[in-house]
Design brief:
This is alcohol dehydrogenase. InterPro entries: ADH-like_C (IPR013149), ADH-like_N (IPR013154), ADH_phosphonate_catab-assoc (IPR017743), ADH_Zn_CS (IPR002328), GroES-like_sf (IPR011032), NAD(P)-bd_dom_sf (IPR036291). The chain is α/β, with parallel strands linked by helices and about 325 residues long. It has two domains: about 5-145 and about 300-330, Medium-chain alcohol dehydrogenases, catalytic domain (Quinone Oxidoreductase, Chain A, domain 1, Alpha-Beta Complex); about 150-275, Rossmann fold, CATH 3.40.50.720. It is about 25% helix and about 25% strand. It has helices at about 40-50, 85-90, 140, 150-160, 175-185, 200-205, 230-240, 265-270, 280-295, 310-315, and strands at about 5-10, 15-20, 30-40, 65-70, 75-80, 100, 120-125, 130, 165-170, 190-195, 210-215, 220-225, 240-250, 275, 325. Strands 3, 4, 5, 6, 7, 8 and 15 form a seven-stranded antiparallel beta sheet that branches. Strands 11-10-9-12-13-14 form a six-stranded parallel beta sheet, with helices on both faces. β12 (about 220-225), α7 (about 230-240) and β13 form a beta-alpha-beta unit.
């Protein structure tokens, strides 16, 4: 077994340096994982571009799949590290733990240098959800489970039953496409997808969309709208598309942006609701793995061919041809 780990440390702007750190012995409740593949969430692009505040320097990356050191058990893991004892944890809101730490979002420091997935190893503290992965799932399909897929599972739980309902999905990135497939599996009667990119709308059909619309076109009336774009104009349009008793679920608004206009009387008289979901609970990660294992959608087509750790900087600042880029540390 290696005695050191390599990490790609983001130091601001487009600067990413390669560092070597000693490989730790896991403490009580900790899990050391050798990373097979990490996928690049859009939130990391937002951090590097300055759209989203983030610790710097840091080892970014929070989507990955790997094997537990010493056992070889293949696993994925959660984004959040919870204390399990505060009032929020006890209410079942561990993702909003009062002492929460997040994989790929912490400052690079000696106390926890292996805190992100752009590395050969990650040390998962006690309080991190860890879920086994069947060998039938390829690395490219499994890696996004720890963020994109699990977040969608949480969103659909909050949305309630979609069986027989008309569903609008705004934003056909990785989360939006996952939501399309999940809504189709949940029995939605119609699944309308809106996005600014024609190529993404084409992908949406492969994942179960019944119709697609370029952004800014008039939306049909729907029962449930899920926004993954975070764009204020799109959110306002989705809210206006709700039928009586309809609900709007916000998932993509994870960086600062303009406020939206909301007519309280319209919400009241229309029995409409607006809610939000950020991160997820351990059960949603378990659901994500089960969902991907049962799905026949072309998930691997959404992930670019992997590169080594030396290319992380270019991945974080370059344009993507697919919803997810990927890093395979062993490629270095």
């Amino acid at each position: 077994m290696a005695r050191s780990a390599r990490v790609a440390v983001w130091r601001g702007g487009a600067e990413v340096t390669s560092e070597t750190v000693p490989l730790p012995s896991p403490g009580q409740g900790e899990t050391l994982v050798e990373i097979d593949l990490a996928t690049v969430c859009g939130s990391d692009h937002h951090t590097v571009s300055g759209r989203r505040p983030g610790a710097c320097p840091s080892v970014l990356g929070h989507e990955g799949v790997g094997r537990i050191a010493g056992t070889g058990q293949r696993v994925v893991w959660g984004v959040t590290v919870s204390c399990g004892a505060c009032d929020r944890c006890l209410r079942g809101l561990t993702a909003k733990c009062r002492r929460v730490r997040k994989l790929g979002h912490e400052r690079y420091e000696p106390g926890w240098p292996l805190s992100g997935t752009y590395a050969t190893h990650v040390l998962l503290p006690a309080g991190t959800a860890v879920v086994p992965v069947p060998d039938t799932l390829t690395d490219e399909v499994a890696a996004p489970a720890g963020c994109a897929t699990a977040t969608v599972m949480a969103a659909l739980e909050r949305a309630g039953s979609l069986n027989g309902r008309r569903v609008l999905i705004v934003g056909a990135g990785m989360l939006g496409l996952t939501a399309v497939a999940a809504a189709a599996g949940a029995g939605a009667a119609e699944i309308v997808v809106s996005d600014v990119e024609p190529a993404r709308l084409e992908l949406a059909v492969d994942f179960g969309a019944t119709s697609t619309l370029p952004a800014a076109q008039t939306l049909p009336t729907v029962d449930v709208a899920l926004d993954f774009s975070g764009a204020a104009p799109a959110i306002e349009e989705a809210l206006a598309a709700l039928d009586i008793g309809g609900s709007l679920l916000l998932v993509g608004s994870v960086s600062p942006g303009p406020a939206i206009r909301l007519d309280p009387e319209d919400v009241v008289r229309g029995w409409r609701s607006v809610s939000g979901v950020h991160n997820y609970e351990p059960r949603h990660l378990e659901q994500a793995v089960a969902f991907l294992a049962a799905s026949t959608r072309p998930w691997a087509d959404l992930v670019e061919a992997p590169v080594g750790l030396d290319r992380v900087g270019s991945l974080l600042t370059g344009e993507l041809g697919r919803p997810r880029a990927s890093v395979r540390p062993a490629n270095n």
